[in-house]
Write a structure and sequence with these properties.
Strand order of the largest sheet: 3-2-1-4-5-6
Strand content: 15-25%
Helix content: 40-55%
Distance between the termini: 8 Å
Shape: globular
Largest sheet: 6 strands, parallel
Number of strands: 6
Structural class: alpha/beta
Length: about 170
C-alpha cells in the first residue's frame, strides 16, 4: 500500500529489518562516512537484535565516534508500528548482503522514502524504467555514503526518487 502523506521527520536515515543482523553493520559503516560531512546526521535502526550483535555494533559505533548520531528502536510490536517508525525518517539506507531483493526496499519506496541500497541480481531492475533508488556495489561504503550525501544535498533528487519510486512500486509490486 502506498502512503503518500508527509509526517514530521525525526531522523535523516533509517535502516530496518525484521532482524538487523542482516546488514545493520554495513549501514553503520556507510553512515559514519556521511557524518564527516554532515556531523548532525542521524540514523534510526529498527528491528530485533541479539545482545551479542548489539554489543558489537555499540563498540563499532563508539570507535567511529557516532554514538550520538545512531538511535536503536528495537523490534516494534506490529508491522504497522514499523511502517509508522520508518516514516519518521527522510531516507532509507537498506544495503543488501544476501537478499536478491528485499521487502524493506519495496516498503520504504511505498512509504515515500528515497532508498539507498546495493546491487544484487534484482535491484537494477527497480531502475529499469526510471531511476527509483540509488545503488552501489556490495560492501562499497564510500559509494553508499556518496549516494547518501547526494540525497542530503539535493531536494530535487530526493523528490524525483520519491515520485519515481511510487510509480515503480505501482508497476512492479502492486
Amino acid at each position: 500500500r502506498i502512503v503518500d502523506t508527509e509526517c514530521h521527520k525525526e531522523f535523516d536515515f533509517v535502516y530496518f529489518a525484521k532482524e538487523i543482523e542482516k546488514a545493520a553493520d554495513w549501514a553503520i559503516e556507510a553512515f559514519a562516512k556521511v557524518c564527516f560531512s554532515y556531523p548532525d546526521a542521524t540514523l534510526n535502526v529498527v528491528g530485533a537484535y541479539g545482545l551479542n550483535y548489539k554489543s558489537k555494533l555499540d563498540i563499532r559505533i563508539e570507535e567511529l565516534g557516532i554514538r550520538n548520531n545512531v538511535v536503536f528502536s528495537g523490534a516494534l510490536p506490529t508491522h504497522e508500528d514499523v511502517m509508522k517508525q520508518i516514516r519518521k525518517s527522510r531516507f532509507a539506507l537498506l544495503p543488501l548482503k544476501i537478499d536478491v531483493n528485499s521487502s524493506t526496499v519495496r516498503e520504504a519506496m511505498a512509504n515515500g522514502l528515497p532508498v539507498i541500497s546495493t546491487i544484487t541480481p534484482a535491484t537494477p531492475e527497480i531502475n529499469s524504467k526510471r531511476q527509483s533508488i540509488l545503488i552501489s556495489e556490495k560492501g562499497d561504503f564510500n559509494g553508499m555514503a556518496e549516494n547518501m550525501k547526494k540525497l542530503l544535498s539535493s531536494e530535487v533528487l530526493s523528490n524525483t526518487l520519491r515520485c519515481n519510486a511510487f510509480e515503480t512500486v505501482k508497476e512492479l509490486f502492486d
